[in-house]
Design a protein that fits this description.
The structure is a homotetramer. By secondary structure, chain A is of the alpha+beta class. In chain A, 41% of the residues lie in helices and 13% in strands. In chain A, helix 1 packs parallel to helix 7 and helix 2 (78-87) runs parallel beside helix 6. Chains A, B, C, D: Pfam families: Aldolase_II.
Chain lengths: 230, 230, 230, 230
């Protein structure tokens, strides 16, 4: 199998995993992957039902959005993915869902505060919510600008330490070293968003010790990480 | 297959899809479809368990509610469906559920505010909640008047741009170009109602930029829509 | 099959339906049925795992709680069921669950207010919550007194029009003409409790028009009921 | 089968039961069991996907954490389990999950108050939440100190009467006479946490009669317990 075929298979399986994890309904959601050496991004086609979709339906484009291979139109969110790949050089996959609790925090216009180790195991700080876009931004190149505003929101934050964002009044984008890791981070974001919403209803003044945050993140991701089989 | 048989099959499958999407329990819920040229409406029979129901059990009536074909009594909500078909000339299907979060907003007597793009992708504005009915309306032709009050609520709103409503203290009705699209809009309404309830618990002062609303709705439904395979 | 065997089968199936509807976990919950002519009550055995339970494990007792047939000990809640059968002469089955939202309202010590037609279709008024029991009542014949306090709570209310109750700090009991109808009312109570909790979080000042309540209840249960196939 | 093989099988099945009960996702969660006579603890390996895990992957260690048998690294939470086994002499199994509602209460930094008989049937009092750990504790032997702080929280409480705890900003640990009973207590804790969160949203001033608490706990666990087949 060529590396393009292999990437199409990976991206297809990552898209199907969104369904398996209950993160998308209807035709919502999309996952992409990038072949950095070739400068090729593979992404879900737009609006195709998951139960009819096949690996060969995945669409290959270059980083300017020109189609390289595939019969179908790429996801309508493609331009957002491309901005993320250009700005965040270490990422290998991007996922976008309208998962229920992640979308609810985005609709509330609130970042998900870091108040638990479940969150700290994967994200080293709050999952930020982007600012409102202006009329000009919305009426211009909307999907590209959505990506630009995500990158602006990150500023000096390390996207490998906070592998996800809430787009205000919209929903989450997550990323990772591969399409599968981007999906895993969507799973974690939704669970953390759910725990956070319930915790907020119990106690709106949540807080968590910074030392505990750092410990949990580094236990899994620091130079001396000791979680897993190493 | 005659067009009536075909419509009965479509309506049956749309009713079963309500169960598959987890929107109804017991014998709750009903979907209908209309054959505009023939003036025939096909609807679920009243109170029949979903696991015993067959396509041939669907009941065909005319727009005045006279039975055209079928052995069973039509849904007790039939008169509401008929008012909607008469008032909203472009719709081809109507669905009614007591889906949990949609019904909760109706019990709260509140319209579902437009605060996210998931909502804006299918509904161009808030999903309105009807007014209280009077004693005379309730004790008169209740189901017909339920439809009249929905139509009154819509006033100048475009029912194809806001394909659903909450009947106060009751539950949602949705519609679309076909029975299947009416069901899809029930799925979206329930998901939007759930996201909205969680967002409301996080932040009761929700808002969304009008430009973003318009952008998302038009991306899928405007003259220059670019979502899907076109 | 003798009528006792038939009743054991009905009660067994009703108990298994609690599991199927997601209303019980572990060994929680119990359903019974009564053969009025014979004065025999058939009930689930105490603490037997659902996946090992068989129809022949159901226990038959008389209205004083003496065992008539069966090898196992009857449910620890048996005495509550017996009080209900003696006080509410028209009921043929009783169900008890710790269903999540029903139990939550009971823990909140609040009746479930009637604010929607889903509720009014099966219960003609609020689902009442019992009073606190005294120390003497709790330390005496606890399960029997639980039944007495339910009956006291009902006073002049018609138990066939309000086929369920919340025992304060405990959970729901429901009943109906048969074990299956008691289970159906547990399903409705849990759904109504869930809708009510979400509606309460959206708007704590809920209300519903009395005329609408009466209309919906009578549409299904009044002398001129017109729901279902008649 | 040797007793070590038998314990590995029990611990493996208890870990898989966490998945079956919906209490863990990804590689989260872990269960262990102890062979008291031999001083051997058997625990889940760290970070192994549940769908690839086999009974033979379970790791055997002594109470000082030295590996006795097994190819894989034990769970990163092993040191917490060992502290619990040393301090709580009657327990035979420990379970740790990030179950949604249990974790939410831990993130809220709140004990789960005893407000229902579902809770009282298994826990004789509130499920306590531990205190914040200090910087030194977090940066030192973190997992061991997590166990120490649980033991400190218990003080004079009887761990067999309150078989679980919330670690602040983290999640629940539960225990029992066996690995299976520890898992059962995780199931109960999550359900009680869910009921408690909903009850709290309905009425933040919850309370429950002490006599009722004692009655329910003793009905199942007291010297005159009468629940189950005895």
């Amino acid at each position: 199998m060529s590396s393009l075929e292999e990437m199409k298979k990976q991206v297809f399986e990552a898209n199907m995993a969104l369904v398996g994890h209950g993160l998308v309904i209807l035709t919502w959601g999309n996952v992409s992957g990038i072949m950095r050496a070739e400068g090729i991004v593979v992404i879900k086609p737009s609006g195709v039902p998951y139960d009819e979709m096949k690996a060969e339906d995945m669409v290959a484009i270059d980083l300017d959005g020109n189609k390289v291979e595939g019969k179908l139109k790429p996801s309508s969110d493609t331009a957002t993915h491309l901005v993320l790949y250009k700005a965040f050089k270490e990422i290998g996959g991007v996922a976008h869902t309208h998962s229920t609790h992640g979308a609810a925090w985005a609709q509330a216009g609130m970042s998900i505060p870091l108040t638990g180790t479940t969150h700290a195991d994967y994200f080293s700080d709050a999952i930020p919510c982007t600012r409102d876009m202006t009329q000009a931004e919305i009426e211009g190149e909307f999907e590209k600008t959505t990506g630009d505003v995500i990158v602006e929101t990150f500023g000096n934050r390390n996207p490998m330490h906070i592998p996800g964002v809430l787009v205000k009044n919209h929903a989450p984008f997550t990323w990772g070293k591969s399409p599968a890791e981007a999906v895993r981070n969507s799973v974690v974001l939704e669970e953390v968003a759910k725990m956070g919403a319930i915790a907020h209803s119990l106690n709106p003044n949540l807080s968590m010790n910074d030392h505990l945050t750092r410990k949990h993140f580094e236990r899994k991701h620091g130079p001396n990480a000791y979680y897993g089989q190493g």
